[in-house]
Design a protein that fits this description.
The protein is α/β, with parallel strands linked by helices and 182 residues long. The chain is 42% helix and 21% strand. The chain has a 6-stranded parallel β-sheet, sandwiched between helices. It has a two-stranded antiparallel sheet with strand order 7-8. Helix 4 packs across helix 7. The radius of gyration is 15 Å and the shape is globular.
């Protein structure tokens, strides 16, 4: 059986460090992991960490230095068996819902025919904001899949809904969606 490819989108949330463990766990499950980091994610975790754990180049820029002639967002979109965005900020959710493609991750999501799994992580007020909730409803209606956040201690120190779901829950849902694509 051909090795399945998961594009892991890591965005600018304090939970970005969990991208390392998600990458490690997906590799343990036999998946090839290609990581796309937003500019904001790079403030929380280094590309070197994710590159080391994935064994693959980490993609960071829409128009960065290219080693080959492929158009990266199209090439990545076509390779993907699944795009997993973990963590997903309110910003990335809003951009995808609005069809904004102003970075490598959003352009890749727009160009893919693969399933997209979004795992929100943000402050409770941001998560429960009517606009964020409407964006989530819109994306669900369009076939995007979600693993809802859990209640816990947020970066601001308060307890609330918005913590990234358990890694095991995310991995389980990602593997389920990969199997549905066969």
């Amino acid at each position: 059986m051909k090795e399945k490819k998961i594009i892991l989108g890591v965005t600018g949330s304090i939970a970005a460090y969990k991208g390392a463990e998600i990458t490690r766990r997906l590799r343990e499950e036999g998946m090839s992991v290609l990581v796309i980091m937003t500019k904001e994610a790079q403030e929380f975790i280094t590309a070197l960490t994710l590159e080391t754990l994935s064994g693959n180049k980490v993609y960071k820029e829409m128009f960065g230095e290219r080693e080959y002639s492929d158009i990266e967002h199209i090439s990545l979109a076509e390779q993907a068996d699944l795009i997993l965005i973990a963590p997903a900020t309110a910003n990335i959710i809003a951009k995808i819902a609005a069809g904004i493609c102003d970075d490598l991750l959003t352009a890749t999501v727009c160009a893919t025919k693969a399933k997209v799994l979004i795992t929100p992580a943000m402050n409770e007020n941001m998560y429960l904001n009517k606009i964020t909730q409407e964006n989530i409803r819109k994306l669900k209606a369009l076939g995007y899949k979600f693993v809802e956040p859990k209640k816990g201690r947020l970066a601001c120190g308060k307890i609330g809904l918005g913590c990234l779901a358990e890694i095991e829950t995310i991995i389980k849902e990602a593997l389920k969606l990969i199997k549905l694509r066969n």
